[in-house]
Write a structure and sequence with these properties.
Belongs to the ABC transporter superfamily. This protein is an alpha/beta fold. A hairpin with a 3-residue loop joins strand 9 and strand 10. It binds adenosine-5'-triphosphate. Adenosine-5'-triphosphate binds next to helix 1. The site of adenosine-5'-triphosphate has 13 residues, from helix 1.
């Protein structure tokens, strides 16, 4: 657990970057710091590993004030990932990843074996190990940055806008990869971003800061979207807050119809292949044409995904599938409408 206890940072020129910040980042969870430019996110993050020292207040790491730990010892237990990866340009990828193990005096073979293991773990081809950073794409470099931060298996990971410099598609895959890694590794992660969608996707808890370094609200994403503390938080969350809240509503209780794959008299009929997977909708007016369909995994995907699936189908119905992609039923507009009404109530 990382605890900020009334932490203030005043720079020598008098700028108050962080103002009496109280915050807890629980062990094994992702805590995201989000807010507009200049609100003190990076300053807060860097005070954890003492790249910047707090002016007042305390930061505790599992109850011990970081101010009392000498920086090299402190940083051994804290991985750090920054925007554009910050790799050493003249070192091969394998040696970049093994940086901290080398510093810790591991023998070269053990450090390199660990680097190779991590390369695969972050979803990279081991064949990239012998390349130099400039021979990798931005997204690949970012993955190497994550692997390097994890090399000595630190319990804490600090990530400062690590995915901001890559295009949206790569960014999404890096975010998914981080969530997958975290489900295996359970690190205590503090993640800085200015992108509220990224914060909501990644955070177990999201701390919204306002300029002047004051905490506006800290909550889990669902609570943040449904109960913003004030106008500033509400504005920062953006306009489609209601729709985005649906991503936290389960489809488990969504009522499904199972007769739309066969009923001859139904306005739309869902066609499935021999394995039970959907192939398209057929309407009586165009019986020879398969129309597009959208699917969601029943019980796993959110109501937002189910709604999206319905909007992608001319039938207006969302096709519910199991984890193997086989049809388990169809959510009609009426069923979705009922679920939406329940979500609005709850
Ligand atoms: N070394 C410094 N000396 C004086 N002021 C500083 C210094 N570093 C940062 N600041 C100021 O402190 C405030 C917080 O900066 P910080 O970099 O922590 O914000 P941020 O939320 O991470 O911003 P961004 O999203 O733009 O990176 C800003 O007003 C910034 O100008």
């Amino acid at each position: 657990m990382i605890t900020f206890d009334a932490v203030t940072k005043r720079y020598p020129d008098g700028t108050v970057a962080v103002d009496r910040l109280d915050l807890e980042a629980p062990t094994g969870e992702i805590t995201v710091l989000v807010g507009p430019s200049g609100c003190g996110k990076t300053t807060s993050l860097r005070m954890i590993n003492r790249m910047i020292d707090a002016s007042e207040g305390q930061i505790l790491l599992d109850g011990t004030p970081v101010q009392g730990i000498d920086p090299p010892t402190l940083r051994r237990g804290i991985g750090y990932v920054i925007q554009q990866a910050g790799l050493f340009p003249h070192r091969k990828i394998v040696d970049n990843i093994a940086t901290v193990p080398y510093l810790l005096g591991w023998d070269k073979k053990k450090a390199r074996d660990r680097a190779m293991e991590l390369l695969e773990r972050v979803g990279l081809d081991p064949g990239l190990a012998g390349r130099y950073p400039f021979q990798l794409s931005g997204g690949q470099q970012q993955r190497v940055g994550v692997a390097r931060a994890l090399a000595a298996d630190p319990p804490v990971l600090l990530m400062d806008e690590p995915f901001s410099a890559v295009d949206p598609v790569v960014r999404t895959s890096l975010q998914d990869e981080l969530l997958r890694l975290q489900s295996e590794l359970n690190k205590t992660i503090v993640f800085v971003t200015h992108d509220i969608d990224e914060a909501i996707k990644l955070g177990d808890r999201v701390a919204v800061l306002r300029v002047g370094g004051r905490l506006a609200q800290i909550a889990d994403p669902k609570t943040l979207l449904s109960e913003p503390a004030d106008d500033f938080v509400q504005e920062f969350l953006g306009h489609d807050r209601g729709i985005r809240r649906l991503q936290f509503v389960s489809t488990e209780g969504l009522r499904l119809r199972t007769d739309l794959t066969g009923a001859e008299d139904a306005p739309w009929r869902l066609v499935v292949d021999a394995d039970g997977r959907p192939t398209g909708w057929i309407s009586p007016s165009r019986p020879d044409e398969l129309e597009p369909y959208g699917t969601f995994v029943h019980g796993r995907d959110s109501l937002r995904t189910a709604l999206d699936a319905a909007l992608l189908s001319p039938s207006g119905c969302a096709v519910a599938v199991d984890e193997q992609g086989k049809v388990v039923g169809v959510a009609t507009r009426e069923a979705l409408d009922q679920a939406l009404a329940e979500a609005a109530d709850g």
